[in-house]
Design a protein that fits this description.
Layout: H1 3-24, E1 29-34, H2 49-55, E2 61-62, E3 64-66, E4 73-75, E5 78-85, E6 88-93, H3 107-118, E7 135-141, E8 144-149, H4 156-159, E9 164-165, E10 185-190, E11 195-199, E12 212-217, H5 221-230, E13 235-236, E14 250-263, H6 273-281, H7 285-289, E15 297-298, H8 321-333, E16 342-347, H9 354-367, E17 372-377, H10 379-386, E18 397-404, H11 414-418, H12 430-441, H13 444-462, E19 465-477, E20 481-482, E21 499-500
Parallel strand pairs: 1-12, 16-17, 16-18
Antiparallel strand pairs: 2-9, 3-4, 5-6, 6-8, 7-8, 10-11, 11-12, 13-19, 14-18, 14-19, 15-19, 20-21
Helix pairs in contact: 1-5, 6-8, 12-13
């Protein structure tokens, strides 16, 4: 089949689907096309892009939300909070809120949701943001809770923005695909083809303009862009730069994502610092950047500018192929098994042009003298390598990642990756653990300085990752919607923020 024939067939299918969709379309119902199928609809996994973009602030809601402009927490299901002592916070809860199954929202429901998240019976991705913190929740009265942590948590109200409150009827010991929350939409359907959300009539807040949303998924950026152009869908949150060709519908935005490669520093030959440095030096960063557009920014650390702890003075790794080869040769001469196969684990659909970037990086590492092979996985299999416990027989590996921190503070990043108990960590250094704990307990300028020192140490002495780019996102929005993306779009797409043009 020729490329022209394939394009004609694709165009015909899209046109037919567009006509069918338009005929059946409710003016207040929208269709969103995502790059990949969600692995599940577990509310404890909303930090995973394809889960959060569907559930967060639509079906389930947190206790606080982060203001995209200031990075400060604002009320959601909690209306106010105060610090009782360095390890205890008291929160007032919103009155008149009901879960979508009719259960009342109260202090007991909050205690249940936090215990479900932190109790260890459930493999909870969102728990990664808390590190190994232990939280105890006490109901003071029906609409007041006290949350006590096992160590000082000066930004606990900010951390609570990843606690998705669920109905107390939710199973406490297993992941679910039928989430029940307090949000303006309830789940109608979830199968291998689609997710459907419909309005929750008893929502406590303002009634959204959108009354229903259908989510579908297509891997190819060009297909997603064409679906919006033909009217088959109304919105796609992520397209490749080469497809962002229409200024009337395509919007670029600085998102909060940092692309990176995590190095499994416990596995030989990756346990050798020279090899980890060589991996960073072997990449032609200017050439790689052409896959992502002129506006992206090289990353020297795993948080974007504007996050408390980001160090503007920290420089990214430069391209030095000769030095990379030299370090590999030195490691080989010292007995490091540099010929060992290293698996680069990529994720299909993680970001536009992501697989092309991985293929290019593998070629550069092979040129440096390393035996790197690429394996691309769908999100469900990829998640097994992202979070502890890692597969036992994984061998030498690196992991393609995109880390989102739009919460205003490096506490959402540093303990996850660099404390030995961190859910995504591959290092085990007691001295580094102590440094992390001291930074997390600090406040004000001292907190900022300690975070900067940690990023500098990781950059120079630890080298357990390969920071790539702070990303620019490209979104296509159908002409009937009144909506534009912002820094939170890679984490969530609140349907209540979407207007429909008359």
């Amino acid at each position: 089949m020729t490329g022209i024939t394939l394009r004609l067939i694709t165009a015909g299918l899209l046109a037919a689907a567009s006509a069918s969709y338009a005929m059946a379309q409710d003016a207040t119902a929208i269709r969103i096309v995502l790059p990949e199928q969600p692995a599940n609809l577990e509310p404890c996994g909303t930090i995973i892009t394809n889960v959060g973009q569907i559930l967060a602030q639509n079906v389930v809601e947190p206790l606080t939300v982060i203001d995209a402009a200031t990075g400060q927490p604002r009320p959601k299901l909690a209306t106010e909070w105060s610090q009782v002592d360095p390890q205890t916070w008291r929160l007032k809860l919103r009155d008149g809120v009901t879960f979508q199954d009719g259960e009342p929202f109260n202090a007991a429901a909050v205690a249940f949701s936090i215990e479900r998240m932190t109790g260890g019976k459930l493999n909870c991705n969102n728990m990664a943001k808390f590190g190994d913190a232990k939280l105890t929740v006490t109901a003071v009265d029906d609409l007041t809770v006290e949350i006590k942590s096992d160590r000082p948590e000066p930004i606990l109200p900010t951390l609570l923005s990843v606690v998705m409150v669920v109905s107390p009827k939710t199973p406490a010991d297993k992941a679910v695909n039928d989430p029940v929350g307090t949000g303006p939409f309830r789940l109608k359907t979830f199968n291998t083809q689609t997710v459907e959300l419909v309005s929750f009539d008893k929502y406590w807040g303002d009634k959204p303009k959108v009354t229903a949303a259908t989510y579908v998924w297509r891997a190819e950026s060009s297909i997603r862009a064409a679906m919006i152009e033909t009217g088959e869908a109304d919105l796609t949150p992520s397209i490749a730069i080469q497809d962002a060709s229409n200024p009337e519908t395509d919007f670029s935005y600085l998102n909060s994502e940092t692309t990176a490669i995590r190095i499994d520093a416990a596995q030989p030959p990756l346990d050798d610092l020279r090899i980890r440095k060589a991996l960073n030096l072997a990449i032609d960063w200017d050439g790689l950047a052409q896959l992502f557009g002129d506006d992206i920014k090289r990353a020297s650390q795993m948080v974007v500018p504007g996050i408390n702890g980001h160090d503007d003075a920290l420089t990214p790794w430069t391209y030095d192929a000769a030095e990379a080869k030299k370090l590999v040769e030195e490691a080989k001469a010292a007995g490091v098994p540099v010929e060992t196969e290293i698996t680069l684990i990529g994720r299909n659909g993680i970001y536009p042009n992501g697989s092309e970037a991985m293929e290019a990086m593998v070629a550069m590492w092979q040129d440096a003298g390393l035996n790197v092979k690429l394996t691309m996985l769908d999100v469900a299999d990829w998640l097994r390598y992202l979070q502890k416990p890692y597969p036992e027989n994984r061998g030498a590996n690196m992991l393609q990642m995109m880390h989102d921190n739009n919460k205003g503070d490096a506490a959402f990043t540093i303990p996850i990756f660099y404390r030995s108990t961190g859910n995504y960590a591959t290092v085990n250094d007691p001295a580094l653990d102590k440094q992390v704990d001291e930074a997390l307990a600090a406040t004000g300028d001292d907190r900022t300085a300690k975070f900067k020192a940690l990023f500098a140490k990781v950059r120079t002495d630890v080298v357990s990752d390969i920071p790539m780019f702070h990303m620019i996102g490209y979104t296509r929005v159908g002409k009937r919607l009144d909506w534009k993306p912002d820094i939170t779009t890679n984490s969530e797409i609140p349907l209540a923020n979407i207007g429909i043009k008359s």
